[in-house]
Amino acid sequence: MPLGRLADFYASYQPQTQATTDGVRAAVLCPLYIENELLKILFIKRSQMVRNHKGEISFPGGVKESSDSSLTVTSIRETEEEIGVKEIDITIFGGLDEVNTSTGFLVSPFVGTIPYPYKFNLSGDEVDSLISLTVNDFLRPENEVDFYYFNGRQLSPQRAFKIDGHTIWGATAKIMGQFIDLGRKFDLFTKSPPQTYHLAS
Question: Is CATH 1.10.357.10 correct for 3-16+23-185?
Answer without folding.
Answer: no
